[in-house]
TrEMBL record:
UniProt organism field: Plutella xylostella (Diamondback moth)
UniProt key word Membrane: yes
Residue span, P-type domain: 250-300
Membrane-spanning intervals of the chain: 152-174
Name of the protein in its database record: (diamondback moth) hypothetical protein
C-alpha cells in the first residue's frame, strides 16, 4: 500500500518542511495552524485510506535491502506519476496507530505539521524525521507530572482504600469453597440462569490477531480523511444520480442471457425494486438449473465503486476504491482496499476489505509470507481505474483466468522469480484481471462483471472463467464436475443427511478449473461465514458471503497436479497417517455390549478377513457421556483393548465434544473441570450455552479457542485412555468451543481419564442423553482441558485414535434449551439455509467463543477441535495421531481425515461416494472414505458385495452402519459377501506399500492419493467427466461395478497401450474395455508398482503383511520405460521423515533392464523376492542380477511366451544398495529369409521353419 512519502531530496524554493507527529500533538495544534493533511500536497489525500505499513514490508517479507527496497512506485489519478519517493531509515511505519512494543516497530503517525527551522539551516535542506513515540511519551509524562502530580497522589490514595474494602468484602462473601463451586455448576441450569446472569461476568476481549485490521484511520482523526470520502450516508445517497431510464434500457439490451448477473438475489424481487437499484429487468418463464436466469441483472459498467489510487511493489499491488452508490444492503463499505500479493510464481492472494473497520478473517490456514524476489510471474493482474474489478491473466498465452480463515497458510521462503501470472488493474473500471504469462489467457476477470457489493452482512463478487470445466466446491453430494448451468451451492457446516443440492458437513469453497490444453487453475475463498457460490454458463462464478472479507487464493499450474501441490503448500499439507490406519476398519452403532463387539471381531478374524481396527460407537459410554464407559454392558473393555494390542490390532472409540451438564457436582469431572477452566461456549448472557445431543438431559460445548481448551481436552482424553487404551479417535457431534485456548488441555484431560480406564486406540466423538454444553476451543485453556479429559479416558481405555463426529457443531435443538437466540437479521439468507435459519440444528449465531461470535466461528469449530484432538492424541500416545472428523474446513487435512457421514445403503449413494472422495483429494484431505455398504437403511448381499469391492480402495476403508440396520460386517452377511471381501481386501493389503508411499508424497509435496482420471490425463477430454473410475496415484486404476444385476462394467482406459489387470495378469485393451468383477484393479503402462502380498495364513493385518517380502511389477510404456518408488519407515513414529528415519528408493525400467536408486536409507526395508516384467514380447535368453547370472541361490527366472511375462523369483534382494536386473532376448528381431528366391522360409529361434507348414503369423507381425 502507498504511504505518506518522505519528501524528495530535491525541493522547490517555496516548499515547506514538515514533520510527522503523533495524533495527540497533531490535535494539540490550534485551529489556525497548518495541520490540514490536504495542504501538504495533492497526493496525500488519497493515500490516507491505505495501510502505509504495507508498502514498507520489504524488511518483514525478506525483500533485499538497499536502494530498491527504499523506493515505492505510485500511480494515481490525481497525483504525479512515475515518482520514486525515498524513505530514510529502514524501519517500518504506518499512519494513524500506536507504537508496536512487541516487535519494536516504529511509531505510527496521525498528522503532518510544519517543522520549525533551526538557525542557520537552509530551507532547501530536507529535514523530514521519524516521530519517536518513546521520547515523546517520557517528555509528556514529565510535563504532565509537573502539572498534575498532587492530584494523582490523592487519586492513588483513594484507589488503595477502595481496593482494601473490595478485598475484605470478597473474603467474607467467598468463604467456603464448596458454595463457590456449586455456583459455578449452577450457571448451566435453567433454574439459576437469572441469578447467574446477575453475577458480574467479564468476558475476555477478543484477541486482535484473529482479525484483519486494515483500519489506518484513527477514530479520533476522522475529520482528516473520512469526511473527505463520506460526509454523511444520506448525503452520499442524494449525491448519486442514477442513469436516465432510456440510457439504462439501452445498456440493458446489450447484456446477453448468459451474461446476466443477478442484481436482486433475495426473495421478493420486483421490477420497481430492480430499477431502484439501477439494474435491468427482463422476466423470463424459462427454467434453467436450480436458480433460473435472473430477472433482475446488472447493466454494463455498474459503478458500485470508483478508482482512487493504486501502488505497486515487487511483491504486489494495492488499490484504493471509493463507494459510488448505495448497494441496497445495510452497512456499505465506503472505502475499500484491494490487495494483490504475490505468494509464489504460481500463487496469488487477492484481498478485498473495508479500509476503515475491522472485519473477521479466519485464522486458519496461515497464508505464507513471500521472502524472496519475484521476477518471473506466470500471471499478471489487470486493474483499471475506469471500472470496478480486476483480471488475472496467464502470461504465456494471455488467457484470462479470473475476472472479478480457517486454514493456517505457511510461509513461502524461496525466491519468486518466475511468476506465471500478471495482475491488471485499470483506473477506468472497477475490478481486476489475472492473466497467465506464458499464453496470455485471462484466468480471472472481475472487470465490468456483475456488481461488486461490499457491506456488513453481504459481500459479493463475480468473475468470468476461462473454462466451464470446474471441479470441487463442497462439501456436497453430486458429480465431481460442477454444473455451470445456473446452479447455487451453499457452504455452511450442517448436520444434514447426504442428499444432492444440500449443504453438508464441511466448508471448502475451492474449485479447480481445467482447460482443454491441460493447463489449470485453482481458487479458494478464505471466508468462514455462510456463503453461496453461483454458477452460470458464461462461464462465470458469483461469490456471496454474509460476513468477513473477500480473501482469495489463486493458484496456476501447467496441469491439475501442479495446482493441487501449490494449493496444499498454502493451506497445509496433509498429515501422514500411521500405517495401521490404512488397514480395514469395522464398526456399528450400538453393538450394545462388549460381548457383541468381541463376537463380531472374533468371527471376522477367524474367517480370514484382512482386518486391523475395531471401533465402538457411543453405546460404549455410560449414559452417552464423554470420557466414560459403561462398566456393566462393557465390563472388561480395558482388557479387550489390551488384547487387541497383543494381537497387533487397534481400537478406536467415539468422543463427543458435547459435554453433559446435568450431573451433580463431583459426579462428572468433564463438566466440573470445564466450569473450573471456564472453557464452555457462552450464550449472550455469558452463561454456558446449554443444548441437547445424546446426553439424558442437557449438553454444553467446550470452546476450543479458549487458552485452556487444549489442556482440558488432553486431560479428558487421557482419563479415557487410562481406562481404555484406544488407538484413534472419532470425533462426532463436535460442539465444544475448540477456539478457546484452554480447550485442547481440557480435551486431553478428558480423553486421558477414559484411556486410564479403557486403553482404546482411537476416538469417535458424539452424543449424550441429557443437556449438553460445548467446550470453547478458542480459549487458551481449552487444549489443556481437552488433553486432560482424553487422558482420563485413555488411562482407563488405551485407545489409538479419535473419531470426532457431529462437529458442525450439531445440536438436537435449533438454538438453546433455555432462552432464545438473538434475531439473525440477515439482508440475504444463503440459498441452502432452511428451517429456522442459520441456527437450525446448531447453536445460536450470537453464542460466544473466547475468540469471537459463533456467527464467524461456526464453520471453524471442527478444525479447532481437530487441532485440539491432534495435539492431545500426540501427547497421549507419543506417536502419529489417527483422527477422523465428520466436519471439516479449509486446511483440515493437516490435522484429521474425513468420512462422508450418514450415507444411505443405496446404489446411488455408493456411486456418489467416488466423486466426494475425489473432491476431498482436491481439498487436501486424502484420508477419506464412505461407510462401506451404507449407514442408513438395510443393505443387500449384492450391494454390499459391490460396495466392499469399491470401498476396499478408499484411502480410509471402514464398514459401518446404524443401530436400526441389520449387521453388515462381512461375516454376518454370509459367504458371498465374506468371500468377495476377503479376496478384494487381500488386494488392498498387497497395495499398501503404494498407498503409504502416496501418503508420504501428499505430505511431502502435495500429491493426491485417490485422484480423478483427468489429473493424470488432463489433455484427454474423454477423462474430464469421468467420476465412476479413479486412480490410486499415477499407476493404479479402480474401475468398480456400480450397477445392480451385472457382473461387469465398461471402463475407459486412456493411452495408446493395453492396461494390465492386476489380479489376472491379463491385458485389458486401451480406450474402452469390459471389466469383470474380479478384474477391477488395473495397472497403467509405464508403471513399477511395489507390492506386499499377504501371507496365506490367517489372520491378515498390516502388522503381519509388513513383515512379508516385497514384489515389483513392471509394465513398460510405448517407449519401453517405467517408473515407481517406495517410501518406508516404522509406520508410527511422529517425525520419521524429519528425523531422517526412513528409506526412499526409486525404480526404473529402460530397454532390457530394471534398476533402483537409493535416494535415502535410514530405516530397514523388507527384501524383494519377486520382480515380474510384462510385455516382453521376445523369448528371454539370459538374466543377470547385479552382473551375476540369475541362477540358484541368487535367483531364478522363467518366461511365459504366451503372455510375454518375464518372472524373476526366489530372490533375497536387499534394497539398501542400488540393484540392476538385466536380460537378453533370443533373436529379438526374427527376420524372414528368402533363400533361392523362395518366400516360405523363416528363421525362428535359430531354426529354419517352412511357413507353408508352420504358423508364421506372429513372425510376420514382428
Amino acid at each position: 500500500m502507498p504511504k505518506i512519502p518522505y519528501k524528495p531530496d530535491k525541493t522547490g524554493d517555496d516548499d515547506e518542511d514538515y514533520e510527522i507527529v503523533s495524533f495527540e500533538d497533531f490535535c494539540d495544534k490550534s485551529p489556525g495552524s497548518k495541520t490540514d493533511l490536504l495542504t501538504l500536497n495533492d497526493n496525500i489525500n488519497y493515500r490516507l485510506c491505505y495501510e502505509s505499513d504495507k508498502g514498507s514490508k520489504a524488511e518483514d517479507e525478506g525483500e533485499p535491502s538497499g536502494k530498491d527496497a527504499q523506493e515505492l512506485r505510485e500511480t494515481s489519478l490525481g497525483g504525479g506519476k512515475n515518482v520514486s519517493w525515498k524513505r530514510r531509515g529502514s524501519s517500518s511505519f504506518a499512519p494513524f496507530g500506536r507504537h508496536n512494543a512487541t516487535n519494536n516497530k516504529g511509531s505510527l503517525f496521525s498528522g503532518v505539521v510544519p517543522k520549525p527551522k533551526n538557525e542557520g539551516e537552509s530551507s532547501r535542506e530536507h529535514r523530514y524525521q521519524r516521530f519517536s513515540a518513546q521520547a515523546t511519551f517520557y517528555q509528556r509524562l514529565v510535563e504532565f507530572w509537573q502539572q498534575c502530580g498532587s492530584t494523582l497522589i490523592l487519586m492513588a490514595l483513594v484507589g488503595v482504600l477502595c481496593v482494601a474494602v473490595w478485598v475484605g468484602v470478597v473474603s467474607l462473601v467467598g468463604a467456603g469453597g464448596d458454595q463457590h463451586y456449586r455456583k459455578l455448576w449452577e450457571r448451566a441450569h435453567h433454574a439459576d440462569l437469572l441469578a447467574a446472569a446477575a453475577a458480574a461476568t467479564t468476558e475476555k476481549p477478543t484477541p486482535e490477531h484473529h482479525y484483519h485490521d486494515h483500519n489506518n484511520l484513527s477514530t479520533k482523526n476522522k475529520l482528516n480523511i473520512t469526511d473527505k470520502y463520506r460526509k454523511k450516508p444520506e448525503l452520499n445517497k442524494k449525491s448519486y444520480m442514477e442513469r436516465p431510464l432510456a440510457t439504462l434500457n439501452g445498456l440493458c439490451s446489450k447484456v446477453t442471457t448468459d451474461r446476466r448477473f443477478d442484481c436482486f438475489p433475495q426473495d421478493g424481487a420486483s421490477e420497481e425494486g430492480c430499477i431502484k437499484r439501477g439494474c435491468c429487468w427482463n422476466a423470463t418463464t424459462t427454467k434453467y438449473g436450480s436458480l433460473g436466469k435472473p430477472y433482475c441483472f446488472y447493466p454494463p459498467d455498474y459503478d458500485t465503486f470508483h478508482f482512487v489510487n493504486m501502488s505497486e511493489t515487487r511483491h504486489g499491488i494495492s488499490v484504493c476504491l471509493e463507494r459510488m452508490r448505495p448497494s441496497g444492503y445495510p452497512g456499505d463499505f465506503d472505502l475499500v482496499n484491494m490487495d494483490f500479493k504475490y505468494l509464489s510464481n504460481g500463487a496469488l492472494q487477492i484481498k478485498i476489505y473495508d479500509a476503515e473497520n475491522k472485519r473477521f478473517v479466519p485464522p486458519y490456514p496461515e497464508i505464507p509470507l513471500v521472502t524472496g524476489p519475484i521476477n518471473n510471474l506466470k500471471y499478471r493482474v489487470v486493474v483499471e481505474s475506469a471500472t470496478v474489478g480486476f483480471k488475472v491473466i496467464r502470461n504465456d498465452d494471455n488467457v484470462t483466468i479470473f475476472v472479478p480463515q480457517y486454514p493456517e497458510i505457511p510461509l513461502v521462503t524461496g525466491p519468486i522469480n518466475n511468476l506465471k501470472y500478471r495482475v491488471v488493474v485499470e483506473s477506468a473500471t472497477v475490478g481486476f484481471k489475472v492473466i497467465r504469462n506464458d499464453d496470455n489467457v485471462t484466468i480471472l476477470d472481475s472487470q465490468n462483471v456483475g456488481g461488486m457489493i461490499l457491506s456488513d452482512k453481504f459481500l459479493q463478487m463475480s468473475t468470468l472463467l476461462p473454462t466451464n470445466k470446474i471441479y470441487g466446491i463442497g462439501e456436497r453430494q453430486g458429480p465431481l464436475r460442477v454444473d455451470m448451468n445456473w446452479q447455487v451451492y451453499t457452504i455452511f457446516n450442517s448436520d444434514s443427511v447426504p442428499v444432492e443440492n444440500t449443504p453438508l458437513y464441511g466448508s471448502h469453497p475451492f474449485h479447480l478449473g481445467l482447460e482443454d490444453s491441460g493447463k489449470s487453475h485453482g481458487m479458494v475463498l478464505l471466508n468462514s461465514n455462510a456463503m453461496d457460490i453461483v454458477t452460470q454458463p458464461t462461464p462465470a462464478l458469483t461469490y456471496r458471503t454474509i460476513g468477513g472479507i473477500l480473501n482469495f487464493l489463486l493458484v496456476l499450474g501447467d496441469a491439475p497436479n501442479d495446482v493441487l501441490a501449490e494449493y496444499t503448500a498454502l493451506v497445509g499439507r496433509p498429515a501422514m497417517p500411521p500405517y495401521w490406519a490404512l488397514g480395514f476398519h469395522l464398526c456399528k452403532f450400538n453393538y450394545g455390549s462388549l460381548n457383541v463387539t468381541r463376537d463380531v471381531w472374533q468371527k471376522n478374524r477367524d474367517a480370514g478377513l484382512p482386518f486391523d481396527v475395531q471401533w465402538n460407537d457411543l453405546d460404549y459410554m455410560s449414559n452417552s457421556n464423554d470420557f466414560t464407559y459403561d462398566t456393566d454392558r462393557f465390563a472388561g473393555l480395558p482388557q479387550f483393548a489390551r488384547a487387541l494390542h497383543r494381537q497387533h490390532m487397534h481400537y478406536v472409540v467415539l468422543i463427543d465434544p458435547g459435554i453433559s451438564s446435568s450431573e451433580k457436582p463431583g459426579e462428572y469431572p468433564p463438566f466440573d473441570r470445564g466450569l473450573e477452566l471456564d472453557i464452555f461456549i457462552k450464550n449472550s448472557s455469558n452463561m454456558p450455552f446449554v443444548g441437547k445431543v445424546w446426553n439424558k438431559q442437557t449438553t454444553v460445548w467446550p470452546d476450543f479457542t479458549h487458552p485452556s481448551a487444549q489442556a482440558y481436552w488432553l486431560e479428558m482424553l487421557k482419563s479415557l485412555h487410562d481406562q481404555v487404551p484406544f488407538d484413534g479417535a472419532w470425533i462426532t457431534m463436535v460442539s465444544p468451543d475448540f477456539t478457546r485456548p484452554s480447550a485442547q488441555a481440557y480435551w486431553l484431560e478428558m480423553l486421558k481419564s477414559l484411556h486410564d480406564q479403557v486403553p482404546f486406540d482411537g476416538a469417535w466423538v458424539v452424543w449424550n442423553k441429557q443437556t449438553t454444553v460445548w467446550p470453547d476451543f478458542t480459549r487458551p485453556s481449552a487444549q489443556a482441558y481437552w488433553l486432560e479429559m482424553l487422558k482420563s479416558l485413555h488411562d482407563q481405555v488405551p485407545f489409538d485414535g479419535a473419531w470426532i463426529d457431529m462437529n458442525e457443531p450439531s445440536n438436537f435443538l435449533s438454538g438453546p434449551m433455555y432462552g432464545h437466540c438473538e434475531p439473525e437479521d440477515l439482508p440475504y439468507v444463503p440459498h441452502g439455509i432452511r428451517g429456522d435459519g442459520l441456527k437450525t440444528k446448531t447453536l445460536c449465531m450470537d453464542a460466544k467463543h473466547y475468540a469471537g461470535s459463533h456467527y464467524d466461528w461456526h464453520n471453524l469449530y471442527s478444525i479447532t477441535e481437530s487441532i485440539a484432538t491432534n495435539f492431545a492424541m500426540t501427547e497421549l500416545r507419543g506417536s502419529r495421531p489417527f483422527i477422523i472428523s465428520r466436519s471439516t474446513f479449509v486446511g483440515s487435512g493437516r490435522h484429521a481425515g474425513h468420512w462422508s457421514g450418514d450415507v444411505a445403503s443405496a446404489w446411488h449413494d455408493m456411486r456418489m461416494s467416488i466423486p466426494e472422495m475425489l473432491a476431498f483429494s482436491l481439498f487436501g484431505v486424502p484420508l477419506m472414505g464412505a461407510d462401506i455398504c451404507g449407514f442408513r437403511g438395510n443393505t443387500t448381499v449384492e450391494l454390499c458385495t459391490r460396495w466392499m469391492q469399491l470401498g476396499a480402495f478408499y484411502p480410509f476403508s471402514r464398514n459401518h452402519n446404524s443401530d436400526t440396520s441389520i449387521p453388515q460386517d462381512p461375516a454376518s452377511l454370509g459367504p458371498a459377501v465374506l468371500e468377495a471381501s476377503i479376496r478384494i481386501l487381500r488386494v488392498r493389503y498387497s497395495l499398501l506399500p503404494l498407498y503409504y508411499t502416496l501418503f508420504w508424497r501428499a505430505k511431502d509435496s502435495g500429491a493426491t492419493v485417490a485422484r480423478p482420471l483427468f489429473a493424470e490425463f488432463p489433455t484427454d477430454p474423454l477423462t474430464h467427466d469421468i467420476d465412476t473410475q479413479f486412480m490410486i496415484g499415477p499407476s493404479i486404476m479402480i474401475a468398480p461395478i456400480l450397477q445392480p444385476n451385472t457382473t461387469s462394467t465398461q471402463a475407459y482406459l486412456p493411452g495408446d497401450l493395453p492396461w494390465l489387470v492386476l489380479t489376472t495378469e491379463k491385458k485389458a485393451p486401451n480406450k474402452y474395455a469390459t471389466i469383470h468383477e474380479h478384474g477391477t484393479v488395473l495397472v497403467r503402462p509405464g508403471s513399477i508398482v511395489p507390492l506386499q502380498t499377504p501371507s496365506p495364513r490367517v489372520p491378515v493385518s498390516t502388522y503381519t503383511t509388513r513383515s512379508e517380502p516385497l514384489q515389483l511389477i513392471v509394465l513398460e510404456d510405448s517407449s519401453g520405460k517405467a517408473y515407481g518408488e517406495l517410501y518406508w519407515d516404522d509406520g508410527d513414529s511422529l517425525n520419521s521423515y524429519e528425523e531422517k528415519k526412513y528409506s526412499h528408493i526409486e525404480f526404473y525400467k529402460q530397454s532390457t533392464s530394471v534398476n533402483s536408486a537409493v535416494q535415502w536409507w535410514g530405516y530397514g526395508v523388507p527384501t524383494v523376492n519377486n520382480i515380474t516384467i510384462y510385455s516382453i514380447e521376445y523369448p528371454v535368453k539370459t538374466v543377470e542380477l547385479n552382473d551375476q547370472p540369475c541362477k540358484k541361490p541368487l535367483c531364478e527366472f522363467s518366461y511365459d511366451a504366451k503372455e510375454y511375462i518375464l518372472r524373476v523369483y526366489n530372490m533375497n534382494l536387499s534394497l539398501d544398495k542400488p540393484f540392476s536386473l538385466t536380460w537378453t532376448n533370443k533373436n529379438s528381431y526374427p527376420k524372414l529369409m528368402v533363400p533361392n528366391g523362395g518366400g516360405h522360409l523363416a528363421l525362428v529361434n535359430e531354426t529354419v521353419v517352412d511357413c507353408r507348414y508352420a504358423d508364421c503369423t506372429e513372425i510376420k507381425k514382428r
